């Protein structure tokens, strides 16, 4: 979580979107963002907050992809540093 944005990655969550992705939430709005490119897959999100998420995804793309592999196998993911 950073700047009020909640970021989640769910275990075994590779059926619906078929792409590595994260779920994001801010002020009741929810969306799904692809990793490692930060493209908005579904939902709506405030433009400024989406840009923050996209910057964070770009900075942490390798870590996010490693976590994605762990999560899709049902393994524990590791914490990734928040955007500062």
Describe the structure.
There is one protein chain. By secondary structure, this protein is of the alpha+beta class. It has one domain (6-72). Helices cover 30% and strands 23% of the residues. The protein has 2 helices and 4 strands. The chain has helices at residues 47-59, 61-72; strands spanning 6-8, 21-26, 29-34, 40-43. It has a 4-stranded antiparallel beta sheet with strand order 1-2-3-4, covered by helices on one side. Strand 3 and strand 4 form a beta hairpin. The longest helix is centred in the middle third of the chain and has 13 residues, at 47-59.
Keywords:
84 residues; alpha+beta; 2 helices; 4 strands; 30% helix; DUF4160; DUF4160 domain-containing protein
Widest sheet: strand order?
1-2-3-4
Total helices: the number is 2
Overall form: globular
How many β-strand runs? 4
Overall tally of structural domains: 1
**Span between N and C termini?**
11 Å
Roughly what percent helix? Answer: 25-40%
Classify the beta-strand content into a percent band.
15-25%
Stretches where pLDDT is under 50 for at least 5 consecutive residues are none
How is the biggest beta sheet arranged?
A: 4 strands, antiparallel
- Structural class computed from helices and strand pairing: alpha+beta
Mean pLDDT: 93
Oligomer status: single chain
- Note the run of SSEs as H and E: EEEEHH
CA radius of gyration is 12 Å
Protein name: DUF4160 domain-containing protein
Pfam families: DUF4160 (PF13711)
